[in-house]
Design brief:
Radius of gyration: 17 Å
Number of domains: 2
Largest sheet: 6 strands, antiparallel
Number of helices: 3
Strand order of the largest sheet: 1-6-2-3-4-5
Distance between the termini: 28 Å
Low-confidence stretches: none
Length: 106
């Protein structure tokens, strides 16, 4: 079941039967507003695919925000540790990591 279908079912279960089109309208509005369930990433490539501003909690409980994308081929992306001004390379984040928020992709 996709996130969209699961969200539909949650809304549907609490809605009146004759409101089917309105339920889908609510699903689309909620997703358009940016709702996403937290999910796991297990590889550095998945971390690097996240947009700037994305927030993850790594396997050791540290929280990082995607700081910027390195545009040089083969270079890693950089992550800012919460409460710090220090940048970390993707390779220093302990996997698996939970994506708490997904930033905009370029």
């Amino acid at each position: 079941m996709s996130d969209r279908e699961e969200l539909f079912q949650i809304i549907w279960d609490g809605a009146v039967d004759d409101r089917h089109p309105k339920v889908w309208a609510l699903v689309h509005a909620i997703l358009a507003a940016g709702f996403r369930k937290p999910h796991k990433v297990t590889t550095a490539e998945e971390l690097d695919a996240l947009g700037v501003g994305s927030v993850v909690r790594d396997g050791e409980g540290m929280v990082f925000e995607r700081d910027y994308v390195n545009t040089n081929p083969g270079d890693t992306s950089w992550w800012l540790e919460t409460g710090s001004s220090r940048d970390y390379q993707t390779s220093t984040i302990t996997l698996p990591a939970t994506v708490i928020y997904e930033g905009e992709r370029e």
